[in-house]
Design a protein that fits this description.
This protein has about 170 residues and is α+β, with helices and mostly antiparallel strands. A hairpin with a 4-residue loop joins strand 3 and strand 4. The longest helix has about 45 residues. The chain has one helix and ten strands; from the N terminus they run H-E-E-E-E-E-E-E-E-E-E. About 25% of the residues lie in helices and about 35% in strands.
Length: about 170
């Protein structure tokens, strides 16, 4: 009986080792595809940062619903992000809260990090564009697999950070 047990346990252990190795290689290949996709998006300067978590300087961090973003292309910068924090001046229109920027005039500086990610600083130039007067710059840190952190530094507001991911822009039909 002991011999039969030993004979049965060896194939089970060998199969479980193969399954573990196969799962790891499958995960590595999926991650390699994601790394290439992120590199393409960042090099083309055509992507969307989807925010799913907010970290204000004051108050509690919280999850966000879908739909908050920073869209970047070579000729347009568009953001729709919530704001939680202290502002030193109130907006003229009380319904115009959040971080809303839509401009074609901005500086874009991207550098590659040691681990294959990207550090991007975007500075809106127009001060009279919708919401641009409240944003000094966006600092986007993108990991090699697309997970990202966005820090928004304002002129009359406390800094605020968002966590999320970078993905390809969806075409509008």
């Amino acid at each position: 009986m002991k011999k039969l047990f030993k004979l049965m346990i060896v194939p089970v252990l060998v199969l479980s080792c193969f399954q573990t190795v196969w799962a790891q290689s499958s995960k590595a290949s999926k991650q390699a595809v994601k790394v290439e996709e992120v590199k393409k998006l960042m090099d083309a300067q055509n992507y969307v940062f989807q925010a799913d978590y907010v970290v204000p300087q004051r108050g509690n961090s919280r999850s966000l619903t879908y739909g908050y973003y920073l869209r970047v292309s070579k000729d347009t910068l568009d953001s729709y992000l919530p704001y939680f924090g202290r502002a030193t001046s109130a907006p003229l229109d009380p319904t115009d809260g959040g971080i809303k920027v839509n401009t074609t005039k901005f500086d874009y500086k991207s550098t590659t990090t040691k681990k294959g990610g990207y550090e991007v600083v975007i500075t809106p130039k127009e001060t009279q564009s919708q919401g641009s007067k409240d944003v000094r710059y966006f600092r986007l840190t993108v990991g090699a697999t697309g997970y990202s952190s966005l820090q928004v530094i304002g002129n009359s507001r406390d800094p605020i950070s968002f966590n999320g991911y970078v993905e390809a822009k969806k075409s509008k039909k």
